[in-house]
Amino acid sequence: MIDMSKWEAIAAQNVHNRASVAGRLGGKIAIVTGSAQGFGKGIAEILYAEGACVVIADLNEELAKTVAAEMGERAFAVKVNVADEESVVQMITATVEKFGGLDLLVSNAGVLKAGSLDELEKKDFEFVTAINYTAFFTCVKYTQRIMRAQYEADHNWMGDIISINSKSGLQGSNKNSAYAGGKFGGIGLVQSFALELCPYNIKVNAICPGNFYDGPLWSDPERGLFVQYLNAGKVPGAKTVEDVKEFYLSKSPIHRGCLPSDVAKAILYAVEQTFETGQAIAVTGGQAMLH
Predict the structure, then answer these.
(1) Nearest CA-CA partner of 162 in 135, 136, 199, 183
(2) 6 CB contacts (<8 Å, ≥6 apart)?
(3) Exactly one of 179, 213, 229, 248 is catalytic; which is it?
(4) Strand runs labelled E in the chain
(5) pLDDT tens-digit readout, 39-93
(6) Secondary structure class of 29 (helix, strand, coil)
(7) What's the CA gap between 23 and 25, in Å, rounded?
(8) Residue in 142, 114, 108 with CA at minimum distance from that of residue 128
(9) Cβ proximity of 57 and 80 under 8 Å
């Protein structure tokens, strides 16, 4: 077992020393994984604007440093490979060293490789699962050590772990089994962690966004999902990327894609409320509704 006792002690000592900053998250310390671009960047910016100290944790260290510098002095960049246990521990200890504790983990880093059963290779399935499912376990395993130490120092302290899941964690996704399977599994982890960590005032919830069409995951001209889905034949009759995009826009009664601000509002709700844990909050414009 990796020894984190030094960092647990530091967090416990500093639990009452949160900086007084205006905003709904004033004084809270947050990590957002995969936050150098896309959804994660937008989420991190809003958390920062609401008063949090924010760790921009990303595999792309240079871009993370740029984003943190643009935000201001309460932002800090850390390089992390969420699939590597030692790297995750270093991310968390660097956070405690910089800011003195940890109150909010937003597990956002994710990957996607679409393909039918005949097309998707086992190595690709395992890669997607390692980032989207197993890495969430690893991040929570070490985050909760710091959070529990803070609770032991102050039983009024409350922390949050939030998984940025997906509507594909609520309903299956054709020719996208690795992604949907990992996201379904992630909901199971959220519910299980919520039960285990509730005695320590740690709430664990999932946000399940609809599609962020403007981000690189969807719109990258070479590797984006519009291109992947076109090539995989996932949308019947689609001849162009625009055909694929319109197909997905038409699925939502609110005819647009999900935005980082939509997800951030759900995160703020999850953090501020004190009587909800183990939930999967759908932010899909009506595309995925409660059953």
Answers:
(1) 136
(2) none
(3) 179
(4) 29-33, 53-58, 75-79, 104-107, 159-164, 202-209, 280-283
(5) 899 999 999 999 999 999 999 999 999 999 999 999 999 999 999 999 999 999 9
(6) strand
(7) 5
(8) 114
(9) yes
Q: Supply the pLDDT for residue 224.
A: 87
**216 pLDDT exceeds 80?**
no
C-alpha 145/C-alpha 77 separation (Å) is 21
State if pTM tops 0.85: yes
- Listed by start position, the domains of the chain span 5-210+259-283, 213-257
How far is Cα 199 from Cα 257, in angstroms, rounded to an integer? 37
Q: What is the mean pLDDT of residues 217-241?
A: 88
Known catalytic residue: 179?
A: yes
β-bridge pairing 202-209 and 53-58:
unpaired
Residue 237 zone, left/alpha/beta (φ > 0; ψ -120 to 50; rest): left
Instruction: For 5-210+259-283, give the CATH class.
Output: alpha beta
DSSP sequence for 58-77 = ES-HHHHHHHHHHH-TTEEE
Tens-place pLDDT, residues 153-184: 999 999 999 999 999 999 999 888 999 999 99
